[in-house]
Design goal:
The protein is an alpha/beta fold. The chain has 9 helices and 8 strands.
């Protein structure tokens, strides 16, 4: 990896540090804070997948924002509808919780690499993110959408990203790839696409599970190739599992990242979601906002 370290500088974005900035029509979605980090959670992890009630639950937990799903196959990615966007806007205003980004988790079942429906969702998500004042759309590549050791699927993904990347650039939206790939494999895709608006959505638990040195990977990728982070554990509360979050913070400091830290997973077996997330929120703030 060290022999390839200069590669991370190839595609430095002219946008500079993305941070927490939210631009768009709905100022109510913006996270207005002088803090370096915004602490959020994924709607699917707090039991409110693609539901506007996730905003209220975020308030109960004490979060700054929620990473919301574009939707599901059953509701036809309903966040593309103006009336649904308005419901989220109203909830954000009522509870003082921001939209911390958009995710397309359904791509794990409807693969971007092979299904035209997923390609359309990504195209539309750029418009939705712009309208909702968010900077990042998470693109999920797991299960049926997995790219690991899939040369043909990876090449098709590159071609599709090449088509949508100019639209993302024009609208100031970043498409974040979350997958089982290593930092080097992610960079091969990013360089092939050739857009500063395609980046890595770094999930510490996924990369640790794959055996990657997450602290070295974060430093190697650097601030210009990582758009956001998932603070995640599988089956443990944050701080009680396999990830050394103090070392994650050290690596993040080294690359001078600032922006959203989204909590995912981190609910022990038989534990209550709300109780777990109140503890997760308290812990991650002690690491990142202390």
């Amino acid at each position: 990896m060290k022999n390839d370290i200069s590669r991370r500088d190839v595609l430095k974005s002219s946008l500079g540090l993305l941070g927490l900035g939210c631009l768009g029509a709905y100022e109510a979605f913006a996270f207005n804070s002088t803090k370096r980090f915004g602490i959020g959670a994924c709607d699917w992890s707090i039991g409110k997948l693609a539901k506007v009630e996730a905003i209220e639950r975020g308030k109960k937990i004490g979060l700054d924002g929620i990473q919301v799903s574009l939707g599901t196959l059953d509701n036809d990615m309903h966040l593309r509808q103006g009336k649904i966007q308005r419901q989220y806007k109203d909830a954000c205003e009522k509870y003082g919780v921001a939209i911390g980004g958009i995710a397309i988790g359904e791509m794990n079942n409807i693969p971007y690499k092979s299904d035209p429906r997923a390609e359309q969702w990504v195209w539309d998500s750029v418009d939705v993110a712009k309208k909702m004042g968010c900077k990042v759309v998470l693109l999920a590549f797991f299960n049926k959408g997995d790219l690991k050791n899939d040369v043909q699927g990876t090449q098709e993904t590159i071609q599709r990203l090449k088509k949508v990347a100019p639209k993302a650039e024009d609208n100031g939206i970043v498409l974040g790839i979350e997958s089982w790939l290593s930092a080097k494999e992610h960079m091969e895709i990013i360089e092939a696409v050739g857009s500063p608006n395609v980046k890595v959505y770094y999930d510490v638990a996924n990369s640790n599970k794959m055996g990657y040195n997450i602290y070295e990977e974060i430093r190697w990728l650097g601030r210009y190739n990582i758009c956001e982070f998932h603070a995640k554990e599988n089956g443990y509360l944050l701080g009680q599992g396999k990830i050394d979050f103090q070392e994650v913070r050290s690596a993040i400091d080294d690359i001078q990242y600032e922006g959203w830290i989204q909590i995912e997973g981190a609910v022990p077996e038989n534990a209550e979601i709300l109780d777990s997330y109140e503890l997760n929120n308290k812990y991650i703030r002690s690491v990142f906002n202390g």
